[in-house]
Write a structure and sequence with these properties.
Blueprint: E1 2-8, E2 10-14, E3 17-21, E4 27-29, E5 31-32, E6 38-39, E7 43-51, E8 59-68, E9 75-76, E10 88-94, E11 107-115, E12 120-121, E13 127-135, E14 138-147
Parallel strand pairs: 4-14
Antiparallel strand pairs: 1-7, 2-3, 5-6, 7-11, 8-10, 8-13, 9-12, 13-14
């Protein structure tokens, strides 16, 4: 088995293919949550699963989890202090044979996960986060850096401290 994850801003399945927008990014920005903690902008994780001939039409369990660069889990909102579960998904997948292909031809299938902004809870920016995908003894990762949002500019001298629009 081979696993090939791809990150994108958004996407949608299209039969045996996947349409992705802004695929392949490696950095994003954290956004504060009103309940505390941080979240991530919209993201779509697509996992291409390749299987050799002898593994086609068999049930395979994928474990998909989001961890930070220290191995700590991310969570689904509302986060760990509000009983939000760890960002860990178990998904069963069957890789079908390629229609009309001769015996021995490997197959591919896709798993598409759409995570709108606010779905994931992270401790904060300034970390690298890693999607780890595992099936059996095969594991693959795709990581991305999370930076802090830009600060609003301060206009005036330190004594007047006005922000734009005031």
């Amino acid at each position: 088995m081979k696993i090939r994850p791809v990150l994108a801003d958004t996407g949608r399945p299209a039969g045996s293919a996947v349409h992705l927008l802004n695929a392949g990014w490696t950095a994003t920005m954290a956004l504060p949550l009103p309940i505390g903690g941080w979240t991530l902008p919209d993201q779509a994780l697509t996992v291409f699963v390749d299987a050799p001939w002898d593994q086609l039409n068999k049930l395979h369990m994928l474990v998909i989890e989001l961890i930070d660069d220290e191995g700590k889990p991310a969570y689904f909102t509302p986060g760990p202090s509000n009983d939000g579960p760890e960002a860990r998904i178990q998904h069963q997948v069957v890789v079908p044979p390629v229609p009309g292909a001769p015996n021995g031809t490997p197959g591919t299938t896709t798993v598409f996960l759409d995570m709108p902004m606010g779905t994931l809870w992270i401790a904060g920016p300034g970390h690298r986060y890693i999607w780890r995908i595992t099936t059996g003894d095969v594991s693959e990762e795709i990581g991305f850096w999370v930076q802090a949002p830009p600060q609003s500019p301060v206009i005036g001298t330190p004594g007047s401290m006005q922000t734009p629009g005031q």
